[in-house]
Write a structure and sequence with these properties.
It contains 39 helices and 4 strands. The chain is mostly helical. The longest helix has about 35 residues, at about 915-950. The two termini are about 55 Å apart.
Length: about 950
């Protein structure tokens, strides 16, 4: 099973070269994985029909008992045949539907096959978390497929709407899964169904959340708005995703969990009421539409409501009818969508008011459409009739709620017959007073897939008994019925057959009165769900703008004051309520007097920031507070933390100085006396509250500190540096997350500087028309030597010639040249000694970044380009790649980030060992180096270019796409 899923994704990844080489014929090759899956599923029919299963499991997150578990049972067998079989036919249909010149054909082909793989994994998943992962993958791929023609606003809006609705439902479902998994003690679906947790309040809430996800996926009211709009997608997408696959996922989940949770009090009211309402609303809306795809779309919404009612009814006979109807619906609805695509392809329109006489000009297409439509209207001897009879019989012999639902189903079936007749009449009948619509010839290859589906619906009607054993294997999970139903085409004359006749007659009457029905429908029509959704979004945007305008007033100090006030209020509320200081050990002022002295000086520097008006002074004083914190680490005996703090503070101060070149010398925000008097106590109160909270947290410890255990664990592996080992081994997940956040933050900051294109930051000396930023000055200094009188006799820097002689310092150039390589060597030493000495990838990357900063400060942006000719993104991306590769390499031992050590011997150097933690740390080193280099280029070199351009020393760069000057 795993191999089949991987084959889908692997071949999907090859879609671009396949389409480039084979054109539309590549769809035939891409149909091979679904075809192989279909054949494999048929070979397992006997096993699943006998109540057996085929399982596969691979441990994923052992701590939380989460596995990549797959299981093929009777219900999964049906869904696999639909997902793979219909998917194969749709891919073959695409080979004739599209042309070699169709835009973005390769991404479309890859996304469609990848969706088939995700859908296959979804229906096979036997773990709640695994199911959720592939559930969201189907959402992502459906978003890409619906928005395939992205130049159209309608497609973009429809794709985003589908993504929004189904993703919100999916997030709610994830919370429900977590609650269910914890309540049941396992995330294995088969185990939960076999032994469901007790129906507590938490389980009831979880069931509602799971149903939110299922109902949103299957477009059940009030989530039904996205499905009709998704018809903007190409017809093959509608035939597969919106008839046989994606929309069936919600129904499948309801059917999968119904044996375990149908008795939970909230289950049946939600499923039966919303399912019945959806069936009626969708069918009624389909009677007044003119687009054939929209008629089928609202018909699909109606049928999904019907399927949800059957799947969630909670009894054996209804479950049997549900799986039979799932099969019937997939066959006739996919066929009808494909026929609609042929009509649109041949006639150039789907508007039933413009179509006329296609039944004569396209008789084979008409025959296929009529066969599929007859099954949708539940006419004998089609599979749709056998499934509908089973549904009516099940609801007829159910409880009171089932009988009420029976009335809804009969009324909904009347609407189904009516819009089915409307579809057939609109697509193929000759309209009075209208000329026959001109069409072009349709090839047999295009008609074959829908013909196979339609004929299958006809053959499986009399042969529905062939499926009874398989479907009964699923239905038998429910309590045994007093009179078990068995699938057959003919059960004799009875109430169910009478009700079917009523639906046929009622549907025919509604169709005969279609003009009156359309007028009444439009007159009493409620606002569409799509309109409501649009107004809700507009209202949300307006409220957001109002709140943003009220809160975001452009005062950074105001933002900080609000943040600190909220934090202060929350912390004080907790402290006053819990009183954690009662019984706590009183805090000590210091361990040694030196700590008090350093803390006093640090606080004095922080308070001095409140009195300065120059930005540079504020930066220096803020930097002193950071250095003070580093000294406290030194006094406390934490050299790793101290080293990191010193490096971070140094880089931060340099970055601040680079930014200050583009800011006024003084703070421009005027602060009144009363504001200053208010902010000072807020700041002091926030600091005091945080201090008390930290003391209370430390004093509340009841367990033994973990430090001793960590020291012992590190020593057990022959290491000495506990801090570095924690970062790259014991808590490596945290480091990975922080690395990703650091990279994202750096990209965000520098992107604000590079407003147009990063590539615009050229470092070629030829671009200069005159002076550089390092030669520009507002005025000449009198009384000082100029020009060559101050220039060094030789160049110590690679790009020293770009500096004005009066701005060159021989001391700085010599120091920068001599220290650059030793600092780099020091960074490598800090990297590789981290297992036993203070250091690590993070601080080593900062030290290497400081070496590059030294070159920049000594020689300008061209010197930086000579020192680091590679793009910063290369270092950042390579660092993330190395760290991730090391993390995934641990899977060879069963878990992500599993550490291993290799011991060896070299002739000259002697014994050595190499561990994955060092490689992981090397990835962190590259990432931090890339981040520092990116920031220096953005805030240093980029600002230099802006200064040069403003002074006319640099020709304005133009965007190659628009030809307009970059800013």
């Amino acid at each position: 099973m795993t191999v089949l899923i991987l084959c889908h994704f692997a071949l999907a990844a090859c879609a671009v070269p396949l389409v480039r080489r084979l054109g539309r014929r590549a769809f035939v090759v891409l149909a091979l994985p679904p075809a192989a899956t279909t054949v494999w599923a048929f070979t397992q029919w006997g096993t699943t029909a006998d109540g057996g299963s085929v399982t596969s499991s691979w441990e994923w997150i052992a701590t939380y008992d989460v596995s990549f578990a797959l299981r093929l049972d009777a219900l999964a067998e049906l869904m696999v045949l639909l997902a793979a079989g219909v998917g194969m036919l749709v891919l073959l249909y695409c080979a004739s539907y599209f042309t070699d010149g169709s835009p973005r054909l390769a991404p479309f082909a890859g996304n469609l096959l990848a969706f088939a793989g995700a859908m296959l994994a979804l229906v096979l998943a036997d773990d709640l978390i695994t199911l959720y992962v592939f559930w969201e993958l189907t959402t992502v791929f459906s978003y890409l497929l619906i928005g395939h023609t992205s130049e159209r606003k309608k497609n973009r809006r429809s794709a985003l709407q589908a993504l929004t609705v189904t993703t919100l439902g999916g997030l709610a479902m994830l919370v429900g899964f977590l609650i269910l998994g914890e309540a049941a003690g396992t995330y294995r679906i088969s185990a939960i169904v076999a032994d469901p947790p007790e129906a507590t309040l938490a389980v009831s809430v979880a069931v509602v959340l799971v149903l939110c996800g299922a109902l949103s996926k299957s477009a059940i009211w009030p989530f039904s708005l996205w499905l009709p709009n998704a018809m903007a997608a190409p017809t093959p997408v509608s035939a597969y995703l919106h008839a046989a696959a994606m929309v069936k996922a919600g129904v499948y989940l309801v059917a999968r969990l119904a044996p375990a949770f149908a008795d939970v009090p909230v289950w049946r009211p939600v499923v039966l009421v919303l399912g019945g309402a959806t069936m009626l609303l969708g069918g009624w809306r389909a009677l007044r539409l003119h687009d054939l795809k929209l008629v089928l779309a609202y018909g699909t919404v109606s049928q999904l409501g019907f399927l949800t009612v059957l799947a969630g009814a909670g009894n054996r006979n209804a479950a049997l009818a549900a799986v039979a109807m799932i099969l019937a619906h997939a066959l006739f609805k996919a066929a009808l969508f494909l026929v609609t695509g042929i009509v649109d392809h041949a006639a150039g329109t789907r508007d039933l008011r413009e179509l006329s006489g296609l039944g004569r000009t396209m008789p084979y297409v008409c025959a296929v459409g009529v066969l599929a439509a007859a099954s949708m209207a539940a006419l004998p001897p089609f599979l749709g009739f056998a499934a509908k009879e089973a549904a009516l019989e099940a609801l007829l012999h159910g409880d009171t709620a089932d009988r009420w639902e029976l009335a809804v189903v009969v009324l909904g079936s009347v609407l189904t017959v009516a819009y089915t007749l409307r579809f057939v009449w609109g697509a193929f009948a000759r309209k009075r007073g209208a000329a026959d619509t001109p069409v072009h010839r349709v090839g047999a290859a295009l008609l074959a897939p829908p013909a196979v589906l339609a004929v299958a619906g006809l053959v499986l009607g009399p042969g529905v008994g062939w499926t009874d054993r398989l479907f009964a294997a699923y239905a038998d999970f429910f309590p045994a019925a007093a009179h078990p139903y068995h699938l057959a085409l003919w059960h004799g004359l009875g109430t169910a057959l009478l009700l079917s006749a009523v639906t046929w007659a009622g549907g025919a009457v509604l169709f005969a009165l279609r003009g009156t029905v359309t007028k009444v429908s439009r007159r009493v029509a409620w606002p569409t769900a799509d309109s409501v959704f649009g107004h809700l979004l507009l209202g949300l945007e307006r409220v957001a703008l109002q709140i943003t305008g009220f809160v975001q007033r452009g005062s950074l100090s105001g933002y900080l004051a609000i943040t600190m006030t909220v934090m202060l209020a929350g912390q004080l509320a907790v402290l006053v309520t819990d009183r954690p200081w009662e019984g706590a050990v009183a805090p000590r002022a210091w361990d040694v007097p030196l700590q008090g002295a350093v803390a006093f000086l640090t606080c004095a520097a922080a308070l001095s920031c409140l009195t300065v008006s120059r930005r540079m002074k504020a930066v220096v004083l803020a930097g002193l507070t950071g250095y003070g914190a580093a000294l406290l680490f030194v006094v406390q005996g934490a050299p790793d933390l101290a080293l990191t703090q010193f490096c971070v503070e140094t880089v931060s101060m340099i970055v601040f100085v680079l930014v200050l070149r583009r800011l006024p010398v003084r703070f421009e925000e005027s602060i009144g006396t009363w504001r200053r008097a208010l902010r000072i106590p807020v700041a002091l109160g926030a600091a005091a509250t945080v201090g008390v909270a930290v003391w209370a947290a430390g004093a509340a410890r009841v367990a033994e500190p973990a430090g001793a255990a960590m020291v012992e664990e590190v020593a057990h592996h022959g290491l000495k540096d506990v801090v570095a080992t924690i970062l790259v081994d014991l808590r490596a997940w945290d480091t990975m997350g922080e690395s990703a956040v650091l990279a994202a933050a750096a990209i965000g900051v520098t992107s604000l500087i590079y407003l147009h294109r990063r590539g615009e930051a050229s470092m070629n000396r030829e671009e200069l028309r005159g002076e550089t930023a390092w030669t520009l000055s507002g005025r000449r200094l009198t009384g000082l030597p100029q020009g060559d009188d101050t220039a060094p006799e030789r160049s110590w820097l690679a790009a020293g010639s770009t500096l004005a002689p009066e701005h060159r310092s021989v001391v700085f150039e010599v120091v920068g040249r001599l220290l650059f390589h030793p600092i780099l060597v020091l960074s490598l030493y800090l990297l590789f000694c981290a297992e036993n000495m203070p250091g690590g990838g993070f601080v080593a990357g900062l030290v290497a970044g400081l070496a590059l900063i030294t070159r920049y400060l000594a020689g300008g942006r061209f010197e930086l380009a000579e020192a680091a000719p590679l793009q910063p993104g290369l270092f950042t991306g390579l660092g993330l790649f190395v760290s991730t590769a090391v993390a995934l390499g641990g899977l060879a031992e069963g878990t992500v980030l599993h550490a291993w050590t290799y011991h060896g011997h070299l002739p000259v150097f002697g014994d050595y060992h190499l561990s994955t933690s060092v490689l992981f740390d090397f990835g962190v080193y590259l990432l931090v180096l890339g981040v520092v280099l990116d920031i220096v280029r953005a805030l240093g070199a980029k600002v230099d270019r802006q200064i040069e351009r403003a002074a006319g020393a640099l020709a304005p760069a133009t965007d190659p796409g628009t030809g307009e000057p970059n800013r």
